[in-house]
Write a structure and sequence with these properties.
heterodimer, A: 391 residues, Butyryl-Coa Dehydrogenase, subunit A, domain 1, Butyryl-CoA Dehydrogenase, subunit A, domain 2, Butyryl-CoA Dehydrogenase, subunit A, domain 3, 3 domains, three-stranded mixed β-sheet, 12 helices, globular, B: 384 residues, 11 helices, 15% strand
Chain lengths: 391, 384
């Protein structure tokens, strides 16, 4: 048994290299742009390209497609180190959904057209799955595809498509076979996000993020932009899902926040008491530390499965489930400790921790909803892990 | 990274499960609640033959010489069947204290007889005003020409009535620091000046008030260093807490297994209750809590096994297991509905024992204090 991710000097050297790179290149502004998604700016894009030029966005991909070889362990080391430095994985849709799906199921031409550019950090994808009638029930989507000569003609709309306002491509799921068997109705496409007929309308969230409605009015998509086989989209989507969930929920990211709360308590007096001496404050922070460690252990178990060649199935869902609920508790506990000061936004003079607690509190409302709601994950876990019967 | 059990650990687990399933049914657990001794000689010697008492005793003291991880696996299996009797007292509290604090002679004298099942041992720590806290220990040990004289009362001493030896943490001096002035003594359990009184707990496990009424102890029965006993005791408390966690989620897994099986059998409103989402969510929540218990505990056990610092980790594990195992038991009861509430149902046994597990070797609040001390001394980014 060994809970250490890094077990060789070479792996440690790689981790150190990533860490040194991030110490230099990762600024607070870049962290903000990723995390807040208020707008990926030029700094964040430049950071993407730099990661790409180090070969780190193509870890584990074959060299013929712009990958840099390397093992899954290297990829996990990279993700962990990014998390430790509080960076976000740049453009998860490109790197963890579109990329792997194209790699496993796309045509040779498609691989050559997209994978090298994803690996160099040059292109970004928006995720086009959700529609007003299709949230947890993705099969209820209504976007329709008809075929005309060398093109698909696509009509409909998608919503909550974050990144579409700046992404180069749309990773789109739409119905090519609406009357067919349930899991054979959908196909996946790579659509040029600036194609004629596409209209993007902004939506603004509680957490201050910008997301979008994306309208398709007779958009012509070349036939060669179908990903893999027609009507296999559902299968491809499920395939990508578990891996993506693991990549996104790195408990390491939460430890620096806890550290800042501890430091805040050491420096702050309230009602005659230094917060660090208040047993209730100490208890709350210790509780967060305990929950973070427990989540990390569960996450490591799932990562160990992945590194061992097994596919974490419901295990990945559990990591997302507990990570999302934990982040909400971090927000609320932080608010309790900051008291009035927790309600101050980042640009208020008196906001402690640069307003991050307020932002976590507001932004984490989505965490238990998007990317697999807590309810859906609990249902799926019961059925897959415990084999409980369907209703 | 490799979060799997070794072949040796898997063999130990499989053989333990088979033995315990056969020899420790819940009917035995129930019987032992009523039984005065709380264990059968037959089961005790059966375990001794398997070498379990000596699992972590080094081979030179006639033990098997396995490590802390293996002991954790064994305790998980024991938790599954709610093993009654003085195994934990002897093979965990006793053995760990001798290993931590004993000199060579003491280890040679006592450990082989523990390993072969001949001796039962326990540890007397808590008092009316002291719960795993050195500063408030009041049982006194006064030195005279022949040795020491022990006076005072200990509480919640497990299996004191059958212990051949009671290891007692007593105050030998008012130390200058909170942790100083405590010494561990090896006391003959059958000494006429030692009296034991059964404390009736909700679990019916054998916990005792032990009164030391001028008990004479020879100098060679000082275990470890005079006035410096607390660090060894603290190590034993922490390691015991981790092993208690293993018992807890060992029990918890059986509760989940029983609960899931029940949801696939019990029908209401025309279908199996396992099809209802509320029930599914309860079961998933139990699974997730247990996964947390399992992996935080095994990570701690691995750190201990590898000789890494583990103080913060052990406290995080016990704090978590205390909280989450409570939920697992409660949800197990909830899903079983009315029948689970009947005394004759195994859920009742698990519930009662869960109340004990939650308090022994530190409550969640107690351990969070340890974690908070680490956070405020070293920050949140350090490992142990």
């Amino acid at each position: 048994m060994n809970f250490n991710l890094i077990t060789t000097p070479e792996e440690e050297a790689f981790r150190q290299e990533v860490s040194d790179f991030l110490d230099v290149e990762l600024t607070d502004e870049i962290r903000r742009q990723h995390g807040l998604d208020k707008g990926i700016g030029p700094e964040a894009r430049e950071f993407n390209r730099k990661l790409g030029s180090k070969g780190w966005l193509g870890l584990g991909w074959p060299e013929e497609y712009g990958g840099s070889g390397g093992s899954l362990t290297h990829e996990v080391i990279l993700i962990q180190e990014l998390a430790r430095h509080e960076a976000y994985i740049p453009n998860t849709v490109a790197r963890y959904m579109a990329g792997p799906t194209i790699l496993h199921f796309g045509s040779e031409d498609m691989k050559k057209e997209f994978l090298p550019r994803i690996a160099r950090g040059e292109i970004e994808f928006g995720l086009g799955y959700t529609e007003p009638p299709a949230g947890s029930d993705l099969m209820a989507m209504q976007m329709r595809v008809v075929e005309e000569g060398d093109f698909f003609i696509i009509n409909g709309m998608k919503t909550f498509n974050t990144a579409s306002h700046y992404a180069d491509y749309h990773w789109l799921a739409a119905k090519t076979n609406p009357t067919g068997p349930r899991h054979q109705q959908i196909s996946l496409f790579v659509v040029d996000q600036r194609a004629p007929g596409i209209e993007i309308r902004p939506l603004h969230t509680l957490g201050g993020e910008r997301t979008n409605e994306v309208y398709y009015d007779n958009v012509k998509v070349p036939k060669n932009r179908l990903v893999g086989e027609k009507n296999r989209g559902f299968f491809y989507m499920v395939h990508a899902l578990n891996y993506e969930r693991l990549a996104l929920h790195q408990i390491e990211r939460y430890l620096p926040i806890l550290n800042r709360l501890v430091n805040y308590a050491k420096e702050t007096r309230r009602n005659g008491v230094l917060l660090a001496d208040d047993p209730l404050v100490r208890n709350k922070l210790a509780q967060l530390a305990v929950e973070m460690e427990v989540c990390k252990c569960i996450e490591y178990k799932a990562l160990a499965m992945l590194l061992d060649g097994s596919i974490p199935d419901y295990e990945a869902g559990i990591v997302k489930l507990i990570g999302s609920e934990l982040r909400q508790r971090i927000g609320y506990t932080g608010m309790e400790i900051l008291d009035h000061f927790g309600i101050l936004e980042e640009d208020s003079d008196l906001a402690p921790l640069k307003g991050e607690i307020a932002w976590i509190c507001l932004g984490s409302v989505l965490d238990t909803i998007g990317g697999g709601s807590s309810e859906i994950i609990r249902n799926i876990t019961a059925m897959r892990a415990l084999e409980l019967p369907r209703h | 990274m490799d979060i799997k059990f070794s072949e040796e650990q898997q063999i130990l687990r499989d053989s333990a499960r088979r033995f315990l399933e056969k020899n420790c049914p819940s009917s035995l657990v129930r019987e032992m609640v009523k039984d005065e001794k709380g264990f059968t000689e037959e089961l005790w010697m059966g375990m001794a033959e398997l070498g379990w008492m000596g699992l972590i005793i080094p081979e030179k003291y006639e033990g098997i010489g396995m490590g802390f991880l293996e002991l954790t696996v064994l305790l998980e299996e024991m938790g599954r069947v709610m093993l009654p009797g003085p195994f934990f007292s002897t093979a965990v509290l006793g053995v760990l204290t001798f290993l931590e604090a004993g000199n060579e002679d003491q280890k040679k004298t006592y450990l082989p007889k523990i390993a072969n099942g001949e001796l039962k041992v326990t540890l007397a720590l808590n008092e009316a005003e002291s719960s795993y806290d050195p500063g408030s220990i009041a049982v006194s040990a006064r030195e005279d020409s022949d040795g020491y004289v022990i006076d005072g009362a200990k509480l919640f001493v497990p299996d004191a009535h059958v212990a051949d030896y009671i290891l007692c943490a007593a105050r030998t001096s008012e130390g200058s620091g909170l942790e100083e002035g405590i010494t561990i003594f090896i006391i003959d359990g059958k000494d006429p000046s030692v009296s034991t009184k059964l404390l009736k707990t909700v679990a019916g496990d054998k916990q005792f008030k032990v009164v030391f009424n001028g008990v004479r102890v020879p100098k060679e029965n000082v275990l470890g260093k005079i006035n410096q006993g607390w660090p060894a005791i603290w190590t034993v408390i922490q390691k015991s807490a981790v092993l208690k966690c293993a018992e807890m989620f060992g029990s918890g897994q059986r509760i989940l297994d029983m609960t899931v099986a029940y949801t696939k059998e019990r029908e209401q409103f025309g279908q199996r209750i396992g099809a209802f989402q509320a029930v599914q969510h309860h079961c998933t929540n139990m699974l997730v809590d247990l996964e947390g218990c399992r992996w935080v505990t095994y990570k701690t056990a691995w750190m201990i096994h590898e000789g890494m610092p583990y103080e913060k980790q052990a406290s995080m594990a016990k704090a978590w297991c205390n909280q989450s195992y409570r939920r697992v038991v409660a949800l197990g009861h909830q899903v079983h509905g009315g029948i689970g509430y009947m005394e004759e149902h195994d859920m009742s046994l698990y519930f009662r024992r869960a109340r004990v597990a939650e308090v022994v070797f530190g409550s969640a609040d107690y351990h969070r204090k340890v974690v908070a001390d680490h956070l405020f001394t070293y920050g949140a980014l350090t490992q142990a």
